[in-house]
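seq as requested:
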Amino acid sequence: MAICLRIPTTAIWSAMILPLLVVGCGQSENNPAATPIAKPAAAPAKAQGPQTGVAPQVADSKGKDKYAYYGKGDGYTPLQQTGRDTWIMWTGGNQKFFRLGSEKAGRLGIPLEYFRLLDSRGRPTRFQRLGLVNEPNFRQATQPDEYGLWLDEWLGDDTYPDTKIYGEPTGVVGLRKFPNPKFDKSRWNVEQYFQKPHTIEPPYLVGMSCGFCHMGFNPLKPPADPENPLWENLAANLGNQFLKEGGIFFGDGKVVYGGENGGKGLGNEDILYHLGETQQRGTSETSRLSYDFINNPNVINSIFYLENRPAFKESLNPPARQQLTKLLDPDTMPIHHVLKDGSDSQGIPIASIRVHVNIGMCGSYWIEQLWNPFNPDVPQKPFDMALASQNFPEWDETLKRMPALEAYLATYTPMRLEKAEGGKYQGELVIPDSYKNGTDDQKARWKIVERGQIVFAENCAFCHSSKQPESGDAKQALDTLKTYFTSGNGQEDEATKQARTTVKAYYRTAVVQDGFLDNNTLTDDVRYPVSELKENAARALATNAIQGHIWEQFSSPEYKGQPTARQLTLYNPITGNNDRTFQPPGGGRGYYRTASLVSIWATAPFLHNNSVGTFNGDPSVRGRIAVFNDAVHKLLYPQDRDGLKSIKRASTRTYLNIRLAVLGSAALEKIRVYKPKLPDLPGLKLPEVFQLVEDETLKDVPGIGELDRLSIRIAIPEGMPINLLANINVSDPEKRIAAVVAYLTYAWQTDIAAEVSKVPVVGKELAKIPQQLAKDGMNELLKLSECPDLVEDHGHEYGADLNDDDKKALIEYLKKL
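struct tokens:
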């Protein structure tokens, strides 16, 4: 029997299916090194290689659709201009990586390509459907180009950077296209390409820049039409709070399996669809490729006051020091904590270049260091900076750009609600500073802000201020308090209580000073244990930066040496209570860095995974405030959060498909001999939970054996928590086998219970037996889990015990940050 094989990996491995299979992507005459830094073109660059069907037209010189109107316009220095263009347009050569990913994945039955995502017929709804930002100065195509591809038509721009260096724009910010040196027009067939994209070279290669995730709408100048923004409506520091990354890959974006269901892409019969649909908007699964066996998408960081971020006395690893000496004196460079867990801790240049590697730069080397589901017993290996520098010119070329990138990102200062759209919302959505000396009614409203300042000083500033006492009793008290919280000892002695009193007194004075918010990042950037914060632990438990893993060289020894966090108490789906305990592993794991509150009015929903607050898809000022109001209410009134409803579940009965080569022979044998326990009920028909299937299209592919062609298709009951499977470390052979048995028990007994419960009179009583067995299977999966924390929106309940008036005052002050 043959069934069209959807995927060679389960939900456990599904986040890795993109370029995971890439091998041999080294340099050659068809794989040239990236080009060096160059100044922006003075005139529209001539398009290179195959073009769209309509010749570019120069934009109206008086219109605000030119790149020159972006950000500070001509207020950037030449260094900052290079940094700007690097952030928004530089791919570091990853277009080669993405194409080879398509080739290798296709040979194993995984169609993977990007031109469905770029189809111009979808331009009018890209933002609404997928949160993508349409690049200004484009128009929707009215016909396919000469190659049959529907691509947005660029109108040209004499202020645009050199497309020989940065590639051509595609119509989607952050996606660039380059001429494909392997393209053969005589062999091109667009229908064949969309059916089997790995079998024919397309006319263009598609690459990705940092701007793909980090470019969003400027909250001070939101677009009148989100599908048609101008350059002045965009900001690359805030992060795209509207991005639907899961849908881009596994849903309507159709990057993976885009030809399924008559070209509609994956449907709800595939677990990948549910994985994508349950990913929170505005988040990115940054370990989608460097997978760590934890489903942990997290919000895209906003960037403000970069030069004012707190610095820490942490050590440089020798490989990082060696690279930094190419740019600066490492001993004079501040070390910051970057990423949600603060693991990037070798300086801003090293943190920044790691981002480029993470999206495909040096791809042929990087991919070899990752866990490969087709060789599942071999773990991740560290990425070696020296080897990358030696073998890939794009490493050094990108490294040279990092000071310019830092200079550009340092230009971003807070986006105050009071200034939004010329100040039109002052008095309505925000209490402006002018009310301090205004009418009696205005002064009365200003008193609310003043009370909010005090509430902030006493409850928030300890963590959410980069301005801290530099000497005296206040500094000593602050050090005592931070030591208490970071140590996680759980017991507050008299010295700590006195320190808390002293710190509150210091901030009551500091916060009301006129310049308190100036150059204040509103974060201490300290790493605090998740056992203190009590947030969902998934991102804090990430393994990529610990010893022996992919980003080992990018994290400091001090990060790796952090004390083990205290035991967590979590929701237990077996009992329905918060009575499950879990001990976070050490080695650096188990911590979150304090998030910045700068421009918090524009960055809701909240927490590291965007789980607190109802997403509304509206980038207008009023739309952002609506989400902020909902999110901040739930932050301060945690009983109003979604709670158990935030658990990511399969919304319908669905299926996962596991390639037998991934499972291995030992796990396969367990499946073959597995027999579920059945209630004593004559005539009960055993539900079909799995079947072996074969992809016959792979029969004649060289190097593909029988186990590579065969897969097991397993049913997933409706309502199953997706992270029961997604958080299993299947690189451990023992865990992999145990997880197979535990899951078969859970899934089969769940189905058996459903069938038995239909039997008249005795059904509900008899169903209790398989129901308990299903719970036993679930319990085993949770024991095996790298993160058994299923509820997404819990934790950070600081301020929940304030009275209603103080909460209202605090909210009014937070709007002004």
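Confidence is low (pLDDT under 50) at residues 1-62.
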